[in-house]
Amino acid sequence: KDVGAQLAEEKREEVKEMLRANFKRVEEAERSLEEFGKLLSPLMGERFRKIRFQTYCLEKKIEMRLYKKHNFSLYVITSSDLIEKESFEMKVKEIIANGATVIQLREKTLPLRVFLKIALLMRKIVEPPVLFIINDRVDIAIACQADGVHIGQEDMPLGMARQILGEHKIIGVSTHSVKQAQQAEKEGADYIAIGPIFSTSSKPKTGPPKGTQIISQVKEFIKIPLVAIGGINLDNIDKTLEAGADGIAVIKAVFQGADVGLATKRLSKKIRDTNQKCFLQ
Prior knowledge:
One of its GO terms (biological process) is thiamine biosynthetic process. Pathway: Cofactor biosynthesis; thiamine diphosphate biosynthesis; thiamine phosphate from 4-amino-2-methyl-5-diphosphomethylpyrimidine and 4-methyl-5-(2-phosphoethyl)-thiazole: step 1/1. The chain has eleven helices and eight strands. The protein is of the alpha/beta class. It has two domains: about 5-65; about 70-280, Aldolase class I (TIM Barrel, Alpha-Beta Barrel), CATH 3.20.20. Strands 1-2-3-4-5-6-7-8 form an eight-stranded parallel barrel, surrounded by five helices. The termini are far apart.
């Protein structure tokens, strides 16, 4: 074993921890200044809020360089029932061409062989740096050589999925609380999804919307990327990202209209514009 490489990695971890701890100190101080500023003047409070958002943006950029360099900013969830069979390949290509950074294939009812056939087709379409993730099914993810798998609280345990997939594959976990998010990170998740942030009909059993405050709360306790999900659209992306989300997961925001490419393009632009605010304010 290369002892030098091990020491370098340990040093890298120390740097990550030091940066993260100091960012948190700065953000806590800025939050206090924002609250105090509001007492003196709404304008002053707003200025401190913008400064705090600038710090969040800087922290995200640095974390992207220090941790796994995966871009979860626009995470599109699709399935065969959302796209007509004859235009499936074309529409997935449009979504990718217009800014999606992750494509997840979620098939809850299809027989294994049909699911696998679609997954193999998707694997040919989705090329790096865009990530291809399979929902729930570790076996399908292996068979189609997907980049990883996304599992829920009732699916295969994360540790078992990691043992099967290996360290090189991405594993994401659906969470609905700070405790679940912390547990997912502890068990080795590469990212977590948290939600529902806003009201959604896509997954009605996940409970009432938690609001953007859950994002800020979870970000206080985890280091891995956080993808916000649930009712996110053009009108609330900015609030979601300002709360600290590293990315947004969408279904209806892309598929409810006829032009999936245009919908994706608008979402991608809104994400870029929101993330760039910190350098323009």
